[in-house]
Amino acid sequence: MRWVVVDVPLDSSGTGRGEQRAPAALRRAGLLDALAADDGGRIDEALLRDPVRDQASGLIGPPGLRRAGAAIADRVASLLADGRRPLVLGGDCAILPGICRALPPATELWFVDGHPDFSDGATSPTGEAADTDLSVITGHGPDAALGRDGALLDPARVHLLGHRPPTDDSSRVETARIDPAIHQVPAAELLRRGAATVGAGLAAGGDGPAWLHLDLDAVDPRDLPAVTYPEPDGLRWPDLVALVTPLARADRLLGMSVTDLNADEDPDGRFTRRVVEVLVEVLGAAG
Ligand SMILES: [Mn+2]
């Protein structure tokens, strides 16, 4: 099935950081032609323009997040209803609750990320909704990011993959908040067990629908430094390819999201081109 690329330039810091320019940079680097993908356009509602942290929720830009989430959910739902397979380009991980609103509640989520994204409005050091997305999706708030409460997906069907151990007080609090029903394979364990083994096991481990989310800061900063919050001791490119290839090619995959490339940290475009090469390797080249 052909991929349909949808741009969601949501930077939840509200400062217009380079995540906002990642979808355009990936297109300029030839992603659509290389994948023979269809153009699903851009979600303009996803732009946040105010970096002020809301007192009540602790988040930056709740009204903008709700507007973005509704627009993302509508677009993804209509593509899925047409039998299409979306490839959603962030932006940061704050795009994910909107995507999950469009998925059947029994969908399995393969969440590959250097961080667990499990803070809430009070415990996030930044107030960026991209610190909170997995918490929101599994029903642990902050609800202000969504405009409704309750879990979007069953935590027992969520697989958190490639995250690093906590390094400071706020990340220790974040790690302690993770829903115990979520299956976790941190980066060190993933590399010990073998990325290909873990990926193949997950792809074959069920028969319901699945969504693949890739935050590029899962990759080791030696290979991909062009992210805002780099974490050491991550997956090297070959590990990432080995993990994600069986997931991206699973028949039951509904779609995929890719987040957190910071185009401002890549002035000559070399890392953006590398991301395109890796996506082509993982998803299959244009035929
Ligand atoms: Mn993330």
Structure description:
By secondary structure, this protein is of the alpha/beta class. It has a single domain (3-283), classed as Ureohydrolase domain (Arginase, Chain A, 3-Layer(aba) Sandwich). Helix content is 33%, strand content 15%. Helix 5 (133-137) links the parallel strand 4 and strand 5 (158-161). Helix 8 (195-204) packs parallel to helix 9 (237-248) and helix 9 runs parallel beside helix 10. The longest helix is centred in the N-terminal third of the chain and has 20 residues, at 62-81. The radius of gyration is 17 Å and the shape is globular. The mean pLDDT is 96.
Distance between the termini: 11 Å
Number of extended strands: 8
- Treating each run of at least 4 consecutive H or I residues as one helix, how many helices? 10
Q: Name the helicity range.
A: 25-40%
Order of helices and strands: EHHEHEHEHEHEHHEHEH
Q: How does the helix and strand content classify structurally?
A: alpha/beta
The CATH topology: Arginase, Chain A
Provide the number of structural domains: 1
CATH class category = Alpha Beta
Side by side, the strands of the main sheet go 2-1-3-8-7-4-5-6
Radius of gyration: 17 Å
- Estimate the mean pLDDT confidence: 96
